[in-house]
Amino acid sequence: MSRPVSIQDSIEVFPTSFDDTNSSYASVASGYPITNGYDDSSSTSQARFNITTGSNAVTWIYYNFDCSAIPAEATINSVSCSVKASINTTNSSRITTRTAAMYTGTTRKGNTSTVANSTTALNLSVGSWTLSELQDAKVGIHIVRGTSNTTSTYYVSFYGATLTVNYTISGTEYAVAASSNIQGITVTPDTQWVLEGNDAQKIIFDTDDLVDYVVTDNDVDVTNLLIRESDSTSGNLNRVLGSYTLVSGSFNGSGATYFQGLVGKGVDNTQTTSNYYSGGNGTIAVFTYDMSFTNIPSNATITRVYCEVNGHAESTSNSNSYMCAQLISGSTDLSTEINWKNIGTSNSTHTLECTTLPTISQLKNMKLQCRLGYYGGAINGATAYVEYAIESSTYHYTYTLENVTADHVILLDEAGIYIPPEEDPEKTYYSLTISSINAVTDPPSGTTRVEAGTTNVITITPSDPQLTLALDNGVDITNQLVGGVPTNTYTVTEKVSGASYGFDLNSSTGYYVSTNNGVGSSASVCRVNFNLESDVLVTIQYINQGESQADYGMFGKIDTTVTTTGNTYESSSASPDDPQNYYYMCASASDSSTTVKTLTYEISAGEHYIDIKYAKDQASDSGNDSLQWKITNIEATSAGGDYTYTLTNISEKHSLIFVFGDVTFYYITSSTTPGARIYPDGQQVKLAGDGYRISIVPDNVNAVVSITDNNVNKTNELEREDGTDKSGNPIVNYVYKLTDIQAAHTLQITIGGASVQIYIKENDSWRTYSKVYLKVNGA
Question: How far apart are CA 655 and CA 473, in angstroms?
Fold first, then answer.
């Protein structure tokens, strides 16, 4: 059913990151960070870049596109780009060049378009592209100063861009068809066409454990390759800011005063009368509102927490006036901070997003914290939201086909009679039984028969990074597994390029220590470089000790280059001003002590970095006058590569068990007296709630089979199935099933009335007989 295809498709991509390596400009305008303007060309948000000063000075601004979603086999038909940008002057003597264009790397593609002082989207002429050129696609803005007003502040506003790529894929599609012979159980999708080399996935919906069913792919049993996944449910809760719900207020300035007006309940129910705080110059008021959630189910997994806040600052002209808000729990900051000084004096709604998800216990103590400077401001209303998921008792199965190169027919059917593999009676075979949790193995789970004296390599692909158990016939083989454990390493660049000071390693304590102690308006900056084969949690211990509200330890966001100069904040602020949103955490005045504190980063697999900085705005010392830090733990949170386990010169049966993750499981141990084979044979593990099926195939179809389960006779629960093997001989198996497993089970099978099997080779094929009649003297 395969068919040749020529598929035309297109994608739209928006800038995903700022190219700080090739860009050069004076500065980012305060309140317009480069994190804005990453979306499409219709965006109203903007990043504002101050143009480099000086006669004929050059400014370059580049944004990167991620075109990795284009298939590797695609042929590029056309590329188009629209970009929305402006510059705040039209005087040609002040700005001689003002162009936008598409680039591959720093090589321009197509013609340039003029950036005006309006915000009309420009449609760029981009010419022809290859797929490799698109892998380094950028939109670039090029500005050259004139000779007039060379020190004046002019800026470029970048609002966004949209890159559209049209392409064709030529190749072969294969049909992957799926169906079910079991009423009430569905397999989806029924039929799908898959381009050669791509993957396909089938989903089977059911509430049973498939112990009575078998799934075949082109007549090959793939039941053991199914992955069971829970059908989780989701929910959301919200908590509105109610009237007069002030929890606490504190002030660090003498003579601070405040008065409280009516506060709107939710972000959409704002009031004109609000909370205003005022005091002497330098006064900072701190107050918190209860936004706690006490009714989140204990088995919930938190998926998102955010708060919409409406407010304004009373003034943005004074260096001491600001209105800030963020989510906290106890002493832990749950979100970054919103600063209305950089937003304005008109009421506006903004979102406080928890990028690191709080725990349920933290949500029970969550508050909205507000800080005000000299002129103060208002919080008019707020609504906090928690979204969560709960694992359900129902589940489904998935079957994945990788690198499809042929048609596939997938069938879900009743589990039929078990037919043992053909074996040469002149050779000896042993059972190899594999059982795994949170891992896929090759050979797959179940029992296979392997020839004596051979070598077998078992590959284990975990889905959870925690190796809980590895056994071979009950013996721990953890140390015999090869690979698997992800390699997660880091190095430290003790002083980044452009920094005047760095960090030195104290070999006796393991701490890296800043070197700019006693130097006013200075900064020590280092970089931690990570090379990770898995997602990780990185734990950092630090000691921040310096002048209170003058010297700050700063921990940068992942893959974010921080400035190398010292004074990146206002000295009157309670924490560093961070309009570019560079920092993950800034050690505040209360952190200035010898106390060891801890913070954690969640970092995905790959190459990443974190910049760490100690900034001073005063020359005086306090205590150690330094930031000290060290990494104490890197914990893998996703699985690494495959494990392998090798059996050499096999001379007995083997039961292999591999368990990953913190799970509850039970052993199922099976054995039989001579005269039958059992599948699976030996010992397996099952999750709580799982089902189990064992097939008992006696050598003699007339043998008497009995079974005990934990020493309780269960023979009357055996189900007999009759059939024939591949050679047409009669065969029978007995099936015993367990459902909703909640304890360990020991199964003992007894075979009675068995007779010795006799093998006779006919036409190069071995046939088995339980009885042979010899005729002697005609009788």
Answer: 5
Look up the CATH number of the domain holding residue 492: 2.60.120.200
Burial 188-216 (b: 16+ CB within 10 A, else e): eeeebebbeeeebebebebeebbbebbbe
Average pLDDT over residues 691-711: 91
Contact (Cβ atoms closer than 8 angstroms) between residue 272 and residue 246: no
Residues 275, 212 share a domain: no
CA gap 305, 498 in Å, rounded: 38
Binned at pLDDT 50, 70 and 90, residue 332 comes out as confident
Same domain, 218 and 252: no
Distance CA 704, CA 750 (A): 8
* Phi and psi torsions of 591, nearest 5°: -85, -5
CA distances from 605 to 463, 577, 612 (A): 15, 31, 20
* Tokens linked to 143: 């500005």
Mapped onto helix, strand or coil, the DSSP state of residue 134 is: helix
Q: What is the 3-state secondary structure (H, E, C) of 183-248?
A: CCCEEECCEEEEECCCCEEEEEEECCCCCCEEEEECCEECHHHCEEEECCEEEEEEEECCCCCEEE
Task: Take residue 761 and report the two structure tokens written for it.
Answer: 């080779």
Residue 326 and residue 335: Cα distance in Å, rounded?
Answer: 6
Which residue shows structure tokens 């296979």?
448
Within-domain flag for 650: no
**C-alpha span between 728 and 420 (Å, rounded):** 13
| Mean pLDDT rounded to a whole number for the chain | 83
What Cα–Cα distance (Å) separates residue 296 from each residue in 180, 304, 369, 734?
39, 13, 22, 48
R_g over Cα of the chain: 35
Domains contained in the chain, number: 5
Residue 454, domain member (yes or no): no
pTM attached to this predicted model: 0.57
548 lies in the same domain as 603: yes
**Beta strands of 93-136 (E only): which ranges?**
95-104, 107-114, 121-124
CA 439 to chain CA mean position, Å: 18
Residues 11 and 157 both lie in one domain:
yes
> What is the rounded distance in angstroms from the CA atom of residue 612 to the CA atom of residue 629?
9
Q: Considering only residues 718 and 641, tell me which one the structure prediction assigns the higher pLDDT.
A: 718
Does residue 274 sit within a domain? yes
Query: Alpha-carbon torsion 691, 696, 701, 707, what sign?
Result: negative
- The rounded distance, in Å, linking the Cα atoms of 324 and 286 is 9
**Domain extent for 124:** 3-169
